[in-house]
Specification:
The complex is a heterodimer of chains A (about 280) and B (about 120).
Chain A: H1 2-17, E1 21-31, E2 38-48, E3 52-58, E4 62-73, E5 76-91, E6 97-111, E7 115-119, E8 133-142, E9 150-155, E10 161-167, E11 172-181, E12 184-185, E13 189-194, E14 200-206, E15 209-218, H2 226-230, E16 237-243, E17 252-257, E18 262-266, E19 272-278
Antiparallel strand pairs in A: 1-2, 1-8, 2-9, 3-4, 3-10, 4-5, 5-6, 7-8, 11-12, 11-13, 11-19, 14-15, 15-16, 16-17, 18-19
Chain B: H1 6-17, H2 23-35, H3 37-56, H4 72-96, H5 106-109, E1 112-115
Classes of the chains: A mainly beta (about 280), B mainly alpha (about 120).
Chain lengths: ~280, ~120
């Protein structure tokens, strides 16, 4: 009976965390006021269950960037926030601004129905005056075939510098390959590639001559800077590894965001391979 | 000394009573006092004050005003006290208000997440 119950729990968890589940971060940025708190901005970020949310708040004297990640387990969810904070602490003898940088992590466990209140500028023993806070509500629902991330943000006070971004690590990408020589371009060769899948052969024809290449999609090396790593600034960067058949040494690797920009790799044959990275279409 | 101002004559009177003037300077001062009733009166007042101070110091027959003597030990002690007070005051002020990034603990300035 115990084994059966445990299996049932695992099945339920798998069903909740599967590709059919969609996660939504619903936020409201609220500023305390004399009578009633004022809503500065509201928005939502949704996507697959492994979607993260990047929140940025800037004032004249402080900047807060935070990446929120959730780990769901049954009726509870763990919210982790990676914070990068810069505070203006004074001016130098040459009258240049001096900033204090701080990096830290916060972790809370909550139920799906709970509301988390995030104090990005701190709320210790001495409240930070009229510093705004962020209300975060997490929702999960059936994806209904929609797998892409979505953002919705309304800034009600345009004097504030606030933003939210969906951070989604692609599982696959649409790659459009062209072979270029001078002013001649081969026909586009679109491919849907899955990350870390075995390499695939692709044939491109330019001026009647066929060129076969072996391509595979990989993730880039971890970002060099701590800020880029903490905020997952390279989350949508993929790398296309290009090699020739039966030759282990690759011709090169093209890395870039999924932003429809063609990136070029010179080939030893004198041609240039142009690879355009984009998000895959819905399926 | 033709262009000497009144203030400078008063300073000369002080120097003369301290025994710091040369013969030439004393002669010039005497010549001026003979013609300046105000300075002569000031010199008499200065002398009376010095006599009173010398009496209070227990030496009414002193030729000049006895200057307070500062002993080396006392001077060193006060220097050490002043230096220590400066160090302590600087440390307290730095701890309380001082320097960029001061004020409040680090945790007070950090963001946090509260579940409601």
């Amino acid at each position: 009976m115990g084994t059966l119950s445990f299996s049932s729990v695992l099945l339920i968890i798998a069903a909740l965390q599967g590709p059919g589940t969609r996660l939504t971060y619903r936020i409201r940025v609220i500023e305390p006021a004399e009578v009633t708190p004022r809503i500065l901005a509201s928005g939502a970020v949704s996507g697959p269950l492994d979607s993260d949310m990047r929140l940025t708040l800037r004032t004249d004297t402080a900047e807060v960037e935070a990446l929120f990640q959730v780990t769901a387990f049954g009726d509870t969810v763990t919210v982790a926030g990676e914070f990068l904070t810069r505070r203006l602490v004074g001016r130098s003898r040459r009258d240049l601004p001096l900033w204090e940088e701080d990096t830290y992590r916060r972790l809370v466990r909550m139920r799906w129905s709970d509301t988390a209140r995030i104090y990005p500028f701190g709320a210790g023993k001495r409240p930070q005056g009229r510093s705004p806070w962020v209300e975060l509500i997490l929702e999960r629902h059936f994806a209904g075939g929609e797998a892409r991330a979505a953002e919705q943000f309304a800034l009600l006070d345009s004097t504030r510098d606030l933003s939210i971004d969906a951070v989604v690590r692609p599982r696959r990408a649409r790659i459009i390959l062209n072979l270029v020589r001078g002013d001649t371009v081969s026909g586009p060769r679109p491919m849907d590639l899955v990350l870390e899948e075995p390499p695939r052969a692709v044939q491109l024809v330019l001026k009647g001559r066929a060129t076969t290449l072996i391509v595979s999609l990989t993730r880039p090396d971890p970002a060099q800077s701590a800020r880029a790593r903490a905020l997952a600034l390279d989350a949508d960067v993929v790398c296309l590894r290009v090699s020739q058949p039966a030759i282990l040494q690759p011709l090169g690797t093209i890395c870039g965001r999924l932003n429809n920009i063609a990136r070029q790799l010179p080939l030893p044959t004198g041609d240039t391979l142009a690879a355009t990275f984009a998000w895959p279409g819905p399926r | 000394m033709a262009d000497t101002t009144h203030e400078e004559w008063l300073a000369q009177i002080d120097a003369e009573l301290d025994g710091e003037l040369s013969l030439v300077e004393r002669a010039a001062l005497a010549k001026h006092l003979a013609t300046c009733g105000h300075c002569a009166g000031a010199r008499a007042s200065h002398l009376e004050v010095r006599v009173a101070l010398a009496r209070s110091a227990g030496n009414p027959h002193a030729l000049v005003l006895p200057r307070p003597a500062i002993r080396a030990g006392t001077l060193t002690l006060w220097l050490v006290v002043a230096l220590a007070a400066g160090l302590v005051g600087g440390w307290v002020a730095s701890h309380r208000w001082g320097g960029p990034g001061g004020g409040g603990t680090l945790e007070d300035t950090r963001g946090n997440i509260v579940v409601q």
